[in-house]
Specification:
alpha/beta; D-Maltodextrin-Binding Protein, domain 2; SH3 type barrels; 3 domains; 9-stranded mixed beta sheet; 13 helices; about 40% helix; about 25% strand; globular
Length: about 400
């Protein structure tokens, strides 16, 4: 498993550093049905999510509805339940697992929680993406094939991604200019483990206020700040109850679209093909909407009187370093941990983790040999944490 996680992190990093626009056809379309369109049979598909109907996330779901109904000539009808009608993100994810709701989308950490598969969050780690092109390439080339390997046996099938944009930090009383400014700050985060852990690691006091209650929580001082993508900051009018915003780029929100596996299996191949094609086309549509809306959203935030700060790269690097335990959790050990070498010529030796590069499948361990402390580079699977 460590090698699998290392491979996915490595692939995500490579795509973050270069554009793979010549990769060919986007994956996941599936095979065509020899008989063409399904005859007169009628099918239904329900989609649940937490966003308002003017959000880009909802517009992407509406595009899926439009395309599915068009591609199936009305044989498959889609019903969308927006704005937390079916509960919060975790509630909806749980309903997708049980089949109470057919389809939904949430960040990987939410799916990780409801399926007990932490690997679901591998494409949604803090400070993982350097630009929007990286997010596009991960969407096109990795999310469907790789997460379906993880989803096997969970009752879910992965269809694609809803890109919610880079997320930034807002505050009421004072600006967030450094990592130290987060110390003890009560900041609203989504009800997802990755967010709670991220802000705890950075010294803040994360609070999982409901999305629809965040405006009031900021207004009444229940929380001192929040974090979000630009579009939802404006759509929720959170710039009215915050005085400062810092460009932190701490997370590119990759919301994984999942459908209940039994529901997916119940569709004939032509309906499956139509749904998958609709999701792929909707992803491109979503990226286009994000690109055109960001400048308008920044202008709206500035017009509301919010002071905007560009977080220095040195401080962003400190924030990323503070979040290293999240990466360590995927591997099973972290810097400073006592480990035992279990494979290779040094099997049986003990040491301390000195450097860790999961994206390169490398760990450096300081091993005591012949009375000397010796640094040794090993693969991730060659060591295991030494339990007390």
């Amino acid at each position: 498993m460590k090698k699998f996680i290392a491979l996915l992190l490595s692939l995500a990093m490579v795509l973050s550093l270069c554009s793979l626009t010549a990769c060919g056809k986007r994956g996941g379309e599936g095979d065509t049905n020899k008989d063409g369109q399904t005859a007169d049979a009628k099918y239904t598909l329900t989609i649940g999510h937490v966003y308002t109907e003017d959000s880009i996330e909802h517009k992407q779901m509406a595009k899926i509805k439009e395309l599915v109904e068009e591609k199936t000539n009305g044989a498959c009808q889609v019903k969308i339940f927006a704005n937390e009608q079916l509960g919060d993100e975790q509630n909806i994810a749980e309903q997708c697992v049980t089949g109470a709701c057919d389809m939904g989308f949430s960040e990987g950490s939410v799916w990780a929680t409801v399926t007990n598969k932490p690997e679901f969050a591998v494409f949604g780690l803090p400070f993982q993406y350097s630009n929007i092109d990286a997010a596009k390439e991960v969407t096109a080339n990795l999310i469907r094939p790789e997460l379906n390997k993880i989803a096997d046996g969970t009752g879910l099938y992965v269809l694609g991604n809803v890109y919610s944009g880079f997320r930034h930090m807002l505050s009421v009383k004072s600006p967030i200019k450094t990592l130290d400014d987060l110390k003890g700050m009560k900041i609203r985060v989504p009800n997802a483990t990755i967010y709670v852990d991220m802000f705890k690691d950075m010294g803040a006091n994360p609070t999982t206020t409901a999305f629809s209650e965040t405006y009031q929580a900021l207004q009444q001082g229940v929380v001192e700040g929040c974090e979000c993508d630009l579009a939802n900051i404006v759509q929720q009018n959170w710039m009215e109850v915050n005085n400062y915003m810092s460009y932190t780029y701490h997370l590119a929100a990759m919301n994984v679209i999942c459908i209940n596996q039994e529901k997916w299996n119940s569709f004939p191949e032509d309906i499956q093909k139509a749904i998958q094609e609709a999701v792929v086309e909707s992803e491109a549509y979503c990226f286009e909407l994000r690109a055109t809306s960001d400048q308008d959203n920044i202008a709206a935030i500035e017009k509301a009187g919010v002071e905007i700060y560009e977080m220095p790269q040195t401080e962003i690097a400190k924030m990323k370093d503070a979040c290293q335990p999240i990466y360590d959790e995927f591997i099973g050990y972290g810097l400073g941990d006592q480990v035992k070498v279990i494979d290779g010529p040094l099997a049986g030796f003990f040491g301390v983790v000195d450097e860790l590069e999961p994206e390169k499948d490398r760990v450096r361990v300081i091993v005591s040999m012949f009375g000397r402390e010796t640094p040794v580079d090993l693969e991730l699977d060659q060591v295991e944490v030494q339990k007390d």
